[in-house]
Each structure stands twice: as C-alpha cells, then as structure tokens.
C-alpha cells in the first residue's frame, strides 16, 4: 500500500502555454441583464471586464491585477447581493480569497482558510 503525502499537493490548473488569456468567465458586471466576460492576462495577471451585448463588445474596464500563482477560479455572488464577486485560488500555496465586488469595484477581500476540510471565513467576513 502506497501512502500519499498529506495534505495532498495542490494540482496546477492547466494554463495555455502561448496564450495571453488564462480565464474567460461570464457574469453581468454592469447590471444590464446581459453577461459580460472577465479576461485574465496570463502574462501580466491583469483582469479586464469586457461588456457585451450578445456577441458585440460594448467596451471594457480593468478590474485589477492578480499576483503570481493566483488563479481566477469562479465568479458568483458570494454575499448574496446579486453582484458578481471573484473567487481566487493560489495554485502554489492553496490559499483562497474572495473579492467582494460592486460592479467592477472591489469593496472587500475575504481570505478563506485553506485545507481539505477547513473552508470558512478567517476574519469574520460575511459570506
Ligand atoms: Ca452586462
């Protein structure tokens, strides 16, 4: 019987080797009822929201910048206000955090405990 290391290593998500876009995630950031797209530049970590009307681009805004090893893992309204929030995971350390958003403006950051069975707000953030 082979024993696995504990905690298990955090697998690195697939990254496109020659593309500058590492994530494209739909969500409605300007409240017009139409999904927009979040792009992350895998070389610079810059995140942009591209406002869409169907397949037409209406414009774009820069949302922020990810540090090395951080990955945009999901977009959802984590605090239930209907605004899309951003969930990030550091694939090197297993750290997790949520940026609570109001449109494209970051209004708070909630750092989540990492580990297999320890998900929960560390500092009393409302999630
Ligand atoms: Ca929209």
Written account of the structure:
The chain is mainly β. Helix content is 0%, strand content 46%. It has no helices and 8 strands. The chain has strands spanning 21-27, 36-41, 46-53, 56-65, 70-76, 85-90, 96-102, 105-112. The strands form 2 sheets. The protein has a 4-stranded antiparallel sheet with strand order 1-2-3-4, with no helix packed on it. It has a 4-stranded antiparallel sheet with strand order 5-6-7-8, with no helix packed on it. Strand 5 (70-76) and strand 6 (85-90) form a beta hairpin. It starts with 20 loop residues before the first strand and ends in a 15-residue tail after the last strand. Residues 14-19 and 117-127 have low confidence and may be disordered. Residues 28-30, 32, 34, 36, 51 line the site of calcium ion (CA).
Set down the secondary structure blueprint.
Layout: E1 21-27, E2 36-41, E3 46-53, E4 56-65, E5 70-76, E6 85-90, E7 96-102, E8 105-112
Antiparallel strand pairs: 1-2, 2-3, 3-4, 5-6, 6-7, 7-8
Bound molecules: calcium ion (CA).
The site of calcium ion (CA) has 7 residues, from loops.
Sum up the structure in keywords.
four-stranded antiparallel β-sheet; 8 strands; 46% strand; disordered C terminus; 127 residues; binds calcium ion; globular; mainly beta
